[in-house]
User: What shape does this take?
Amino acid sequence: MPIQQLPMMKGMGKDFKNADYIDYLPINMLATPKEVLNSSGYLRSFPGIAKRNDVNGVSRGVEYNTAQNAVYRVCGGKLYKGEAVVGDVAGSGRVSMAHGRTSQAVGVNGQLIEYRYDGAVKTVSNWPADSGFTQYELGSVRDITRLRGRYAWSKDGTDSWFITDLEDESHPDRYSAEYRAESQPDGIIGIGSWRDFIVCFGSSTIEYFSLTGATTVGAALYVAQPSLMVQKGIAGTYCKTPFADSYAFISHPATGAPSVYIIGSGQASPIATASIEKIIRSYTADELATGVMEALRFDSHELLIIHLPRHVLVYDASSSQNGPQWCVLKTGLYDDVYRAIDFMYEGNQITCGDKSEAVTGQLQFDISSQYDKQQEHLLFTPIFKADNARCFDLEVESSTGVAQYADRLFLSATTDGINYGREQMIEQNEPFVYDKRVLWKRVGRIRRLIGFKLRVITKSPVTLSGCQIRLE
Assistant: This one.
């Protein structure tokens, strides 16, 4: 009697709306490429979240400040250094952050505000009119970054970007402050720094600027590097993040159907699968522009997290040797969007803000709950052919024994890739029972096709691998 091995890293089924084959992605589960028990990898629940502190509001931005060796967060109307309030921040939307030797900068409400470490707060503005220095039309700040002793910011609605003065960071450079990304007539959507370049992200191009090294008064300090230009744009100001020694971004509809790319050597390489592109395509351009991307790493996982209005998608670079490996994060027992955002390694903890409540949390690897609430974990197998076969002994290897009470795993089957039948409950975890088997002894007779769904609702960590079934 042959034993069929069933992969769980990615299920396969059909879309009931258009009959297309689609991927069923793991939900709240991360794939780990490691040889365990005759399997090439296993799936592990995403770490749970425990409450850390009450704060002033929902999370709006975060940055690790290397000058102060501390994490700066904007939550609600306050700027936090670690757990201490160091300033007030206006508005309620997402903010851009950068830092230097003397100040932490926040781009909010069209202004670049510098919170100096000595307690003073300054807003970047023109030099006094009687100073004799050039007066610029500074406009509204859209995004900020920092490179080599200067803050740089993009002017909203234009292709101009500015740099601050070396001696007084609260004013633009006294001689050569303004530069233009002339390939972006629609305006610079976002700005960042990579190695020794200023990177300007537009809707159809990404342009790089490098230092000229000029010391002559009035000479340009930055010059465009056309050899590095990328013929893709970003969907929104925060739809980009440093990732894998480069930048990852969601592309703008101006260059075709949006997807997820990583920049490398002047080229953009796609990392999204067809199913991920279908999810991204379900959003309008305005909805996509509100997306936020961030990078996170722990336990050899190199994660790219994409926060969209209705989905949180996770790309794991460390598990993608045999093709892009994606999963979905969610909160609760239904399809609520994942609540944590702005992850940062702080001390020896990974801390995070929250999208819905005025709290900060920290990831805990010995739980899978979020703020003491049970979470749902879903895995799917591909549908496979088993014409007129009888099926026995569907078994999943589970690392058990750490639950507070007996947990159950819900197994259901599909014969068409769309509808899943009645769930079979199997005990899959029990306190101090470290060798428990997860086994469905009699599955039944299969007419043609079959696929399985595994569902676990628990506060405990979940580790599953090696799904197999015996056919007659």
